[in-house]
Amino acid sequence: RASSLYGVACPSTTTCYAVGYNNGSGSLSGDIFATTNSGATWTSQSLPSGTYILNGIACPSTTTCYAVGSGDILVTTNSGATWTFQSLPSGTIGPSAIACPSTTTCYAGGQNPSYGGEILVTTNSGAIWTSQSVPSGTYRLNSIACPSTTTCYAAGYGTGSVGGLILTNAPSPGPPGCSSTGVGSANFPGGYWLATANGAVYSCGDAPFYGSLVTLGITPSKPIVGIAATPDNKGYWLVASDGGLFAFGDAKFYGSMGGKPLNEPVVGMTATPQGGYYEVASDGGLFAFGPGASFCGSMGGKPLNEPVVGMAETPAGGYYEVASDGGLFAFGPGTPFLGSMGGKPLNKPVVGMAVDPTGGYYEVASDGGIFSFGTAFHGSTGCLSLNQPIVAMVVSPDTTTVGTGTACGFTTPQSPGGYRFVASDGGVFSFGNAVFAGSLGGLGVTDVVGIAGS
After folding, report:
1. What is the pLDDT of residue 140?
2. In degrees, to the nearest 5, what angle opens at C-alpha 235 toward C-alphas 229 and 239?
3. Using one digit for the tens of pLDDT, what is the confidence trace for 44-84?
4. What's the burial of 36, exposed, middle or buried (CB within 10 Å: 0-12/13-18/19+)?
5. What is the Cα–Cα distance from 325 to 214, expressed in whole angstroms?
6. Rounded distance, CA 196 to CA 392, Å?
7. Positive or negative, the Cα torsion across 38, 41, 47, 52?
8. Which of 97, 99, 84, 81 is nearest to 36 (CA)?
């Protein structure tokens, strides 16, 4: 029989499915072939009567596949022993490409009855498919890829002057709510980056965008838990809970804990003035990589009342670890212990810390409460009702003294310096001389995990 094949999907190194059509009997009918032995043999699958040309296939697992073509979507959940038609919106005529980032979520692209581009989506294994809105001028979509269940890219062509096009629902590199013109200067820096658990990076103010996992189409095997900027702010690193590290801009990769055994997950990272970096785990385990990153000890293997939630490096080369109860642990040169919230009552747990380059350090709680030790207090959100909890903070390097500030109903003279912290919805709060250059608050983002920059 004469078969033409248009698409292939391989959920493992040994298992693949190929789709197309045959015309051996003089009429066109769909074909699906499968191999489970790395292609040594291929067998034809039994398809429902009426299956026509199949253009694409996606297999989120070795047993579950979705095939599309000529107005149909078929699914198998038993390695192709049986294939069944899915119920699609009325009038659907042309899904020609499909991507399934999970066994329950799929996106299919093609053309609608009005000869415009169409994207169908299901989030319940095909029980219900719904049509999504696409930009005007989209004519046909021929290919689609989805690095996550919420982010997809579709390629095709449009009408008139539109020509070839790529559609995406991915976060924009410079999202609404963040300045795209730059508000910083050499003496008053004002840019910063926000990172989310899926590896998206948002540039605010004068912080350039150097890339992200989302724009590369990479889905991290474990969620991103932190971001750190390079010393010259011309790049940044993202770190995942398995210790995997991703470098962008002028950030160099010197190794990571990705793929190595960990007693507990990594919870954060910090960079050194020389361009190296540290990763810290929730048991206090500390991992040093690159220039200036020297292992000076850690809480790994030692008893903790509460888990470590973050760390900060000092200009002299030492570092601090901080636990969720506010307990603070100092290691190496230039790390005087100036006090902590350990053993003291907290309204909310501590979630991070930052070192003031002029001396001292801060702890920040999830309600935005700030605790300053050996340095100036510039205000907090501890008395406010936040939409989402604070997740991280960063200190402004500017040493200009600016007027007065208001913190929880009282006015306080402002000493040199300042800081910002960010909530999980991307809301940014700036104090002292730390410039506010935009945020993601109110834009529907829910998984911000860190902030970095000047």
Report:
1. 85
2. 60
3. 999 999 898 999 999 999 999 999 987 789 999 999 999 99
4. middle
5. 34
6. 12
7. positive
8. 81
Distance CA 126, CA 122 (A): 5
Q: Which residues contact 13 (CB under 8 A, 6 or more apart)?
A: 38
Of 107, 214, 114, nearest to 155 by C-alpha is 107
Q: Check if the beta carbon of residue 277 is closer than 8 Å to that of residue 255.
A: no
Compute the distance between CA of residue 410 and CA of residue 405 in angstroms, rounded to an integer: 8
Q: From CA 180, how far away is CA 87, in angstroms rounded?
A: 44
Phi, psi of 447 (to 5 degrees): -130, 35
CA dihedral (142, 111, 106, 239) in degrees, to 10, reads 50
Measured in Å, how far apart are the chain's first and last C-alpha atoms?
66
CA distance 9 to 20: 12
Pairing of strands 164-168, 117-122: unpaired
Cα separations in angstroms, 152 against 72, 223, 249, 345, 359: 21, 18, 24, 46, 46
Determine contact, residues 106/126, Cβ cutoff 8 Å: yes
Residues 290 and 112: their CA atoms lie apart, in Å, by 54
Query: How many CA within 13 A on the CB side of residue 33?
Result: 19
Cβ atoms 378, 405 nearer than 8 A: yes
Please tell me the predicted confidence (pLDDT) of residue 180.
Answer: 33
Find residue 261's DSSP bridge partners. none
* CA atoms within 13 Å, Cβ hemisphere of 301: 3
Residue with tokens 């000869």: 115
Question: What b/e sequence results for 236-250 when a residue is b if at least 16 CB atoms lie within 10 Å of its CB, and e otherwise?
Answer: bbbbbbbbbbbbbbe
CA distances from 340 to 160, 324, 361, 418 (A): 65, 11, 10, 19
Its pTM stands at 0.61
Residue 88 identity (one-letter amino acid): L
Yes or no: say if 212 and 422 are a contact pair by the CB < 8 Å rule.
Answer: no
Residues whose CB is less than 8 angstroms from the CB of residue 174 and which lie 6 or more positions away in sequence, other chains included: 180, 202, 203, 209
How would you classify the pairing of strands 72-76 and 130-132? Answer: unpaired
Q: Residue 401 has which token pair?
A: 């003294």
Higher confidence at residue 47 or residue 410? 47
Is the pLDDT at 410 greater than 90, yes or no?
no
Residue type, 221: S
* CA gap 187, 190 in Å, rounded: 10
Two tokens, residue 15: 């298992």
